[in-house]
Design a protein that fits this description.
homotetramer, about 400 residues, alpha/beta, Aspartate Aminotransferase, domain 1, Aspartate Aminotransferase, domain 2, 2 domains, 7-stranded mixed sheet, 3-stranded antiparallel sheet, 13 helices, about 40% helix, globular
């Protein structure tokens, strides 16, 4: 048992391994959030945030976790009783649906098998049928963290455009932003929901709404009650680098550092790195003779890979053995995937040898748990890494 | 100009000076929030939190700033259109009132002069008049951060009890918790609202609701829409040391460290230290020949002192000179006190010599700004500190 | 190229990966080294150090790198012109010999092939021949960092004892202490030389002399000039927890934390972990069809493994490719091993998956550098790790 | 008793308050000291060091405390039996004298009263008498940390020049470098000895030798035994950014950060700040009716002020009360000043309000210890600070 020496492998699909630079940044002394030094910090990072979302519009930063930014996207744009469409792509899409209903919206939940992304065709049909334009918004999870499936947002956008439908497009990029190519403006997204603890390499505690002009206009008439999440006072204060309430200053220090790191590596390189690590991981899974949960190769996630075990195995037992023997945390199967699936996070501050260590641990853990695997998995992954 | 050497004096009434121990704690690597190590952390700190609130009941910790916990107190206990009583004790009481109205509540706002706390007599009159028990809640700010006035919660409680009125008592302890004596259970408070960045010595980003049984019962029928702030799933998950969404893990590390520090010093000693520093500060203010904003000595705040300048002076000019010349941040006058008042925070991780440096800087800054002051202020403060 | 994301793999045989706990400890504010808080720290850690050296005698801590502790061992016990025996076990043994000569000692350097440890038989012969007891000391490097060969100190001791020779036994444990079983008292060592940046998991900057009673006695007559390295004033001051000059306070904070970590894991477990990782590494090397430099299996090092390449290869090219492509630092071939050898450090704060990542990187790097290797290396290592 | 809240006041004349930026820097992961990243770091900081010493020549950085750099200055330039002149300016000058004697040098120790700096006239006399040029070196402590007296190095230099004497000039700037104006080249100093934990704002553990061409030449013939301290291999390795042994990497990270901070403030501003704080401190001492130990106003130290108490008082009792009641560390009286003197450090990372807090604590502590003081001390200091 070597669990207590060396560095823990945090290979859940978020929170991700926080870089030392970011940890040091958040450990700087807190400053006056109404003083000139804070304003300089805030104006700088609010600008640096925009390219990460692929937007020229403002991005609101909440001192709250990602779930809060989900709520913000809804209460700022919608009114009690509004109809929205959502897609059953997995556990988090289901949770967001639940939230919408709790807040008083009516959700048309397009069924899914948790192995595919949001279906543009199904959306097109529903929008075509909505001749009265009662549907106020379409809610999509870009990268479903429970399944490792990445929905094709441009095709969703195209479906809305082709139907010439005025519905807002709300997209959750919780586990894709900063890891998987994403373009708020180009793809015509109205509200992008994101958080700090995945591709942005921060601890949890910050979340985001990127907002289109159309969403800003919708906010002026939306009637769901709101105060903390209200965009208006935040955007007003942000213009001078301030907040209507006390912001999470130390996490903002970390955010600035993380944004600098993304700039240094270059976003296209960041995305390529994630794609490459995902390809190596799938090579391992397939090499082991196991199944990747994601059923459509156009929708493979660059951020995580969910591995589906046969019904004779308990995925949580595999995870437990790996945690105890190899000090590595993997993601559990959520909702109806409980016990069937484990998830390997390969996003954020990560590199080839961390992935090699991760996949070595998974392979050994599978073997120790009695899952029949072909040891060709690991070499297959290394072949991908070596080939560059 | 020595502004760029040495340590900044952060003497706003929060965020306060974060101890190195806490900064180091929050810089530890983020862990899996669904793993056994996290559960151990959470169960431990949820227990250690209770005595700080003076409660045996659960305390909900939000990954959000204090304003969020205000909203949580309202949306968990009240329904659209409910009547509540609030007191115009200052800027933050006014903001909380605004929030209540934005969320669809009807607020009876007892007028005040921003120099006194919540008036138990006015409350008694209003409750007596409310024979139909339409008033659902009484909202009080314990320590008004904009004025340095501490409301007498036990007398507020007594007024409610004497009226035999069922209204909930909601108390904001944003700038008092961990600095000024406070007792959720003994004083019959139903929801206590608090945050991390004041007496708890943390960076901003966490906030709290301590909850009475009566408030828990009210939550079962409250109809304001809620999801993120909903106590129920949090309390359910907390029982096993977990959260329904990703908690702000690194700030929780800091919280545990801060709670240990409060235990080490002992809460009664913590409160006595704040009272003593407040007394020394008032001795300085009076010695300078200036006026303390708080007009009732029973309501002097242990956490901050607001200093009222004559109308011929600009308090923000004083603050600006002190920031530029002495690298110290003081609190500005908020709302209708703008320009008339500056606020000296003497709460959190603080000691005698930090206070002596603070008051020295204020005295020199007043002199440099042309405010007529008697130099007897500082010696008067030192006399208090020396006397133990 | 993923060099700039994720954590660097620092797999040289020291400095080793410093645990976050230790890094945080050294970042605490410096305190008065003549005050009571420092004395408490020093007395505590001087006690905790003893079991790590396997001694009940005092251990001197220098605010200096390990080379300084080499010098200290010599100048405290020897006089100009003294004869000493040393063994050509590798680069560092040669450097220590050079130092002894520069300081005015006469060194009888037993020749070696850099693939074996110090030879007890050769020592026995020399001591037997020294009927006049002119040899004042025997200098041995316990674990030769340049070769990955661990000398058998108990057999060296036995040779001295059997010759009934009064020579002092001076042992360099620079890269073994805290990683490989070592017993200052039981093995009759007179001065043990150690440093902070290997098994002790600290940054470089501290070094150590553990001292037998016999060495203390020798110090009273030794005539090499000394001041900074002089044991006497240090030992005198240490009794009350102080130093005759300013100690490296912040590194001492780190030392205390590192000693706590070793206690938590348990020294026997620490040694077993290193043995196991060394075995897995050798399994990989042999699996690749390459040669381990250490030629005697009784002398395999638990701390590092030096890999010998055929003359047709350039070991530094392999290292360079691994650094550039996989962001891992390996040890270079030193002295006459330059270009022929690379060294894999597997000591200090380390675990199974870090080793798996390390060996994956070595295997890929060898392949990329055109070294013919059998890919069976990595699976062979995993088999060792999996077998526990 | 508020000792356990707030920040400790570390007002000994070194180690000084380490800035958070520097503490964070030293907590970065240790890197390979033989890799390209280290070389870049070393070359950069070796260059940035030069202007701080006022030299264009190389500066050697030792992974050792300042006492080691004293030894280095001697063993690199002198031979057994060499005659040197030193001045009894205080405790540290006496310790350096002791070291020289222990190393086998013959010291002509010019007597002093511990209230004046090195006497240029006495030196001139001795050099004039040394017609045979037997004196190999002149050793001077620039700022005597035990007394707060700053010797006038240019006048010492002038005395040597006027005597046309070839002796080397060795100067200890342990507590002046980075605080008090100093010019290695302009003042014709041959070896400047310095350390990390005073004006350089680092923790202890690094020390320095700045070296003139004349000293480099002397080193080629100096015959004191040396190995660890030998300049030659260090200077050779430094040319490529490396070290002949493992350097104290993490402290070097801190050194780079500290050098950046000095550059940002500007050395002339740094010196002016120290002069101003020293003036304010003396104003306080004189205001209290107490005596500054330094007897010549041309020699007042910018780094610390030693306060001389009447024989009826115990200076250590004052210090103890201040530590217990106000959590501030002051310097004790050393050597023959024990009990008569306490020392206030006002150097390093320091500002006006820290000084005001410091002097407030001293004033209160004196009063609590029963020392008769005029409370006019503190206002006199503030008048200096306010006047800018």
């Amino acid at each position: 048992m070597t669990a207590h020496s060396g560095r823990h492998f945090l290979q859940i699909p978020g929170p991700t391994n926080v870089p030392d630079r970011v940890l040091h940044a958040i450990a700087q002394p807190t400053i006056d959030h109404r003083g000139p030094e804070f304003a300089e910090l805030a104006l700088d990072l609010l600008n640096r945030l925009k390219p990460v979302f692929g937007t020229g519009n403002p991005v609101v930063v909440y001192p709250a976790s990602g779930t809060g930014a989900w709520e913000a996207a809804l209460v700022n744009t919608l009114s009690p009783g509004d109809r929205v469409i959502a897609f059953e792509t997995g556990h988090f899409a289901s949770l967001w649906r639940d939230m919408a209903e709790r807040l008083g919206l009516t959700v048309d939940f397009v069924p899914g098998d948790w192995r595919h992304g949001a279906d543009p065709t199904a959306l097109a049909e529903r929008l075509a049928a909505d001749t009265g334009h009662e549907i106020a918004a379409v809610m999509v999870v870009h990268n479903e963290t429970s399944t490792g499936v990445t929905s094709r947002i441009p095709e969703i956008r195209a479906a809305i455009d082709e139907a010439d439908h005025p519905a807002l497009l709300l997209v959750d990029t919780i586990s894709s932003l900063g890891s998987i190519d994403y373009r708020h403006d180009d793809w015509g997204v109205d509200v992008t929901v994101a958080c700090s603890q995945k591709g942005l390499m921060l601890p949890p505690g910050l979340s985001f709404n990127a907002i289109s002009d159309k969403a800003l206009a919708a906010a002026t008439t939306a009637r769901l009650p709101k105060s903390f999440w209200d965009w208006t006072p935040i955007l007003d204060n942000n213009e001078r680098g301030f907040y209507p309430y006390t912001p999470a200053t130390n996490l903002l220090y970390g955010l600035r550092e993380a944004l600098l790191m993304l700039e240094e590596e270059g976003l296209p390189n960041v995305f390529a790195r994630h794609r490459r690590h995902a390809a190596a991981t799938r090579a391992a899974v397939h090499g082991w003779g196991l199944e990747v949960l994601c059923a459509d190769e156009r929708e493979y996630s660059g951020a995580l890979t969910a591995v589906l075990l046969g019904t004779e195995y308990d995925a949580d037992k595999v995870r437990r053995i790996i945690l105890e023997r190899f000090d590595m945390s993997l993601g559990t199967g959520l909702g109806k995937l409980a016990g069937r699936v484990f998830r390997i996070g390969h996003l954020g501050h990560f590199n080839d040898l961390m992935l090699a260590g991760t996949l070595s641990g998974v392979q050994m853990g599978l073997e120790l748990a009695g899952v029949t695997v072909d040891p060709a998995g690991l070499p297959a992954a290394l072949a991908v890494l070596r080939a560059e």
